[in-house]
């Protein structure tokens, strides 16, 4: 959290709403470990990372929804043999679960 906190504090001081996405679990290979965070301001500014690649835009989109409606989301990204190539997933073959919540402090 320390790596994203300065930007969160800046955005909150400017009166912006903020959502934080946190990797809460992983199975197999994944680019970021549990505890990794991505913060998103209501203007769409970003700090931190939960994975990179094609997963990050989906997490940012969910964060923007959470900022608007206040409803947290639990996301899961991974690839199985049954998934088609167009589904968002991790290229490294692992699975991550990401919890997205709005900061209301």
TrEMBL record:
Residues 11-78 form the XdhC- CoxI domain. It comes from the Bacteria. This is XdhC- CoxI domain-containing protein. It holds the Pfam family XdhC_CoxI. The lineage of its organism: Bacteria, Bacillati, Chloroflexota, Ktedonobacteria, Ktedonobacterales. InterPro entries: MoCofactor_Util/Proc, XdhC_CoxI.
């Amino acid at each position: 959290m320390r790596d994203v906190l300065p930007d969160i504090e800046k955005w909150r001081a400017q009166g912006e709403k903020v959502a934080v996405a946190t990797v809460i679990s992983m199975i197999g290979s994944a680019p970021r470990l549990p505890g990794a965070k991505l913060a998103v301001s209501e203007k769409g500014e970003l700090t931190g990372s939960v994975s990179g690649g094609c997963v990050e835009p989906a997490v940012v989109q969910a964060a923007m929804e959470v900022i608007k409606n206040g409803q947290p989301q639990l996301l899961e990204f991974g690839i199985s043999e049954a998934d088609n190539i167009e589904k968002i997933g991790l290229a490294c073959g692992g699975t991550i679960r990401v919890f997205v919540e709005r900061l209301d402090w």
